[in-house]
Amino acid sequence: MTDIAPVEAQGHSTDExxxxxxxxRRDIVRMVHGCQSGHPGGSLGCTEYFVSLYFHLLTHDPRRxxxxxxxxxxxxxxxxxxxxxxxxxxxxxxxxxxxxxKTFRKVDSRLQGHPTTHEGLPGVRMASGSLGQGxxxxxxxxxAKKLNGDGHLVYSLHGDGELQEGQIWxxxxxxxxxxxxxxxxxxxxxxxQIDGDVDAVMPLGDLEAKWKAFGWEVLVNPKxxxxxxxxxxLVKARSLTGRGKxxxxxxxxxxxxxxxxxxGSHEWHGIAPNDEQLSSALSQLPATxxxx
Length: 292
Fold this sequence. Notes:
The protein is an alpha/beta fold. The protein has helices spanning 14-35, 40-45, 47-57, 83-93, 134-147, 166-177, 198-201, 207-213, 227-239, 275-283; strands at residues 74-77, 154-159, 183-189, 192-193, 196-197, 217-221, 247-252. A five-stranded parallel β-sheet has the order 1-2-3-7-6, with helices on both faces. A two-stranded antiparallel sheet has the order 4-5. A hairpin with a 2-residue loop joins strand 4 (192-193) and strand 5 (196-197). Helix 1 runs antiparallel to helix 10 (275-283), helix 3 runs parallel beside helix 4 (83-93) and helix 3 (47-57) packs across helix 9.
């Protein structure tokens, strides 16, 4: 494991980023409750990652969104079921009106349960939800940037249960073999998937050793719900790009983080809170930026 020194967030203080995280978590539980459908567990667990990426690290401009993303960093969500956290962060970054979060999973909404592209939602460049495909897309985008002489980076996020898909490992071989060194991929390593613990469904073994054996530069973040550690790890990952290897971050998180009754179990992977549960969840999450 590469040593990672903690850093203070630049642009936004750690306290400011924490306030954003609390509001994003409120958005997540309210969105899922509002349509009584969706995936709150992984969304809550990845909140620090998304907030760090969009409010601190990513070179992006919501006012100049294009599908090709020339001149900007690109992000691809492969485990598309955690769309609530992404939609919240996109809206609060200025990609589309905050009020639109009310339409999550509703008929004719652009905010489908799994992100789609046919409705032209700003910020979304690939339809996702069929697991295992996002890494291949991210690699293609990274190669396009090289061909275009665009020095910006490509980021992708994946679930650890998603690593049970064979296409992931085909893509991993390709990225290392073709020296796709402008790519930073992250695995949400929470140890849980829809049917239970990942190790009980299909053990993944030593992930750090596997990714290294596949030719990737690997960083392990044991504190994926700590903002400073998330930022420090991604800053370190960025420093390793351009050296002939793709970069993988294995990020330990807690599914359902921030809501006590959702933590510690796979059960909240894909169910919605009832009214009483929503009230309990919101009581734990201060409304720091104002609800939509």
